[in-house]
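When time allows, look over one protein, given below as sequence and tokens. The question is which stretches look regular and which look disordered:
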Amino acid sequence: MFLRQLFDRETYTYTYLIADEATGKAAIIDPVREQMDRDLDLVRELGFELVYVLETHVHADHVTSAGRMADLTGAQTAVSKQGAACGDLHLKDGDVLRIGELELKVLGTPGHTDDSLSFVLGDHVFTGDTLFVRGTGRADFQNGDPNQLWDSITGKLFALPDHTQVWPGHDYKGRAGSTIGEERRFNPRVAGKTREQFVEIMNNLGLPRPKKIDEAVPANRECGRLAEVV
């Protein structure tokens, strides 16, 4: 299995390219509009065929390149059935996508937003904005709910084996990844906390409104295609 983590410096977003090297079939997770040429160049250089462009949720902090990337490559966009209507495939908890000989399993992990998904690929999980390294996504817009976020983290993600590699949607402190076992033990928002304590933390973060939310959310509900005329 091939796995490459890519980074957008402006929004601290991680994008992931995954592929079955035996067949050359590939998928990309959470691509960023401004990085589309970089991402497609890498796919071409490595000789992969992009079959899926996956979104963990409708993002508020950046505009996706999913729709344009799919148009250029013939890949299918795959999003939550509760999120963007633009998707070629609408995913739900328990779905499985085949990328060559690889099986990618879909986990419904709402809480950051109501359409949040995580993707499990062997011993790896791509958690979007549900679980970060020593943190979590916020839960105060797009029908976010801290109680749902608690259930998604403790009931879905922490049910995975401790050695599972965690690949988050963002990191703001230069950390590339973690493991489920580490986050279970050391994540300050969850480790040793009750549900009530977690909800109180999440309800009092006092974070500013995302700078790009007014552009990003409408554009991402159209798989980024609205951004082409902005």
